[in-house]
């Protein structure tokens, strides 16, 4: 996942914007040779303290390579083909990596208000307590199996038909939990996916060390289960599928194998993938969410940003520079996907260790992100009122047909 070849050296001056921070550099003189780093946690800065950071926006950095070549990533223990950071030379011209869109709130309709009122912090916290109460949910552990069993029961209790798919993770195996809720629309139906990774990891401690994984990614898993529970209480035109992946922390194995196994007509039926990874750590004074996708998911990002403006007090950042979570294999496969992640995620220094505990999670931030997610999902799924055909399109996302 690291781009170390075929990079162009900037030949003229340029600027880069990360949120409200701008870095500019001159055309000549080679005083600096800026590059963009995208990192999980502070992984780049921990591995390469010698590389000067010119602009720090947490998940994204501008660094100066004037002192040497491009450093090579070191793989975490037990990982294959997986790096925690990526480095790219910056092209000439203006580059926006993290944007702060100004989006106007839409009309706040009663149907959506009623749906969002069903979201329960108690229900979310109950999932969080169970998941973080396991010693570890490492992909190879019995704890992962217990988490998969418990999540399957929650989904089944909400009305989903649940299956489990075995996956390979390095020298071991793990599983994806898949919950299916068919839509009630007549004619061709699309499918909307809500995804999160269920596994946790303690990188320094190894596979058997304590890994409560509260923010990463108990919060996203509990959030996906809560979205599933609330959405299952209503009738939708399109199918809803909730997937909890294994093997994410070892290199996105669950989502990569899932996407690779999709038949062409199933792939074409996927209208939207909403991935939740770290939605519970309040790292900024103002509650903030980052919506991360690619140009093919720009319409999903627009819908989420509008939902945030209409239904939450969240500040929104957006990025079309996808990295290091389960939305990436979908985007690589040409499927519109977006990550919702807490703002300034790299300020959470507890992830991938025994310090990622329940007490570090702010339920209210997670509930704000779930309100945004649920409102956007309702638009993509399209409500069906009793005795009626589905309502008019509630989304800017075009329906893909096989
Ligand atoms: Zn994660």
UniProtKB/TrEMBL annotation:
Signal peptide interval? none
Q: Where are the transmembrane segments?
A: none
| Biological process per Gene Ontology, one example term | proteolysis
Biased composition (Low complexity) is annotated at 204-221
Ranges where the record places region Disordered: 201-221
The record's annotation in Gene3D superfamilies points to: Zn peptidases (3.40.630.10)
Protein name, per record: Peptidase M28-like protein
Q: From what organism does this protein derive?
A: Blastococcus colisei
């Amino acid at each position: 996942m690291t781009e170390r070849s075929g990079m162009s050296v900037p030949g003229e001056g340029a600027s880069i914007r990360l949120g409200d921070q701008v870095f500019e550099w001159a055309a000549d003189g080679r005083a600096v040779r800026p590059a963009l780093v995208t990192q999980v946690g502070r992984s780049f800065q921990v591995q390469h303290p010698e590389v000067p950071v010119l602009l720090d926006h947490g998940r994204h950095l501008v660094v100066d390579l004037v002192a040497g070549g491009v450093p090579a990533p070191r793989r975490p223990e037990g990982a294959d083909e997986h790096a925690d950071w990526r480095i790219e030379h910056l092209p000439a011209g203006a580059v926006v990596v993290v944007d702060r869109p100004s989006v106007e709130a839409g009309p706040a309709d009663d149907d959506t208000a009623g749906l969002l009122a069903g979201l329960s912090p108690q229900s979310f916290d109950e999932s969080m307590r169970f998941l973080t109460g396991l010693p570890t949910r490492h992909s190879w552990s019995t704890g992962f199996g217990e988490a998969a069993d418990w999540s399957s029961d929650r989904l089944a209790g909400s009305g989903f038909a649940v299956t489990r798919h075995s996956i390979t993770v390095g020298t071991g195996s793990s599983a994806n939990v898949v919950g299916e809720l068919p839509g009630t629309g007549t004619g061709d139906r699309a499918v909307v996916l809500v995804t999160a990774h269920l596994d946790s990891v303690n990188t320094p401690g190894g596979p058997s060390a304590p890994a409560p994984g509260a923010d990463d990614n108990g919060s996203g898993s509990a959030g996906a289960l809560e979205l599933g529970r609330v959405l299952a209480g209503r009738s939708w035109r399109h199918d809803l599928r909730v997937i909890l992946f294994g093997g994410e922390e070892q290199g996105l194995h669950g989502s990569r194998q899932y996407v690779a196994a999709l038949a062409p007509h199933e792939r074409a039926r996927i209208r939207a993938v909403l991935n939740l990874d770290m939605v519970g750590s309040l790292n900024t004074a103002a509650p903030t969410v980052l919506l991360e996708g690619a140009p093919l998911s720009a319409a999903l990002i627009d819908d989420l940003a509008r939902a945030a403006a209409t239904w939450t007090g969240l500040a929104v950042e957006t990025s079309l520079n996808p990295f290091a979570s389960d939305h990436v294999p979908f985007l690589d496969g040409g499927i519109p996907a977006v990550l919702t992640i807490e703002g300034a995620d790299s300020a959470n220094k507890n992830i991938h260790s025994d310090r990622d505990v329940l007490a570090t999670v702010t339920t209210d931030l997670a509930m704000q992100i779930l309100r945004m997610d649920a409102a956007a999902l309702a638009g993509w799924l399209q409500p069906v009122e009793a005795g009626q055909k589905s309502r008019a399109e509630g989304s800017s996302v075009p329906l893909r047909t096989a």
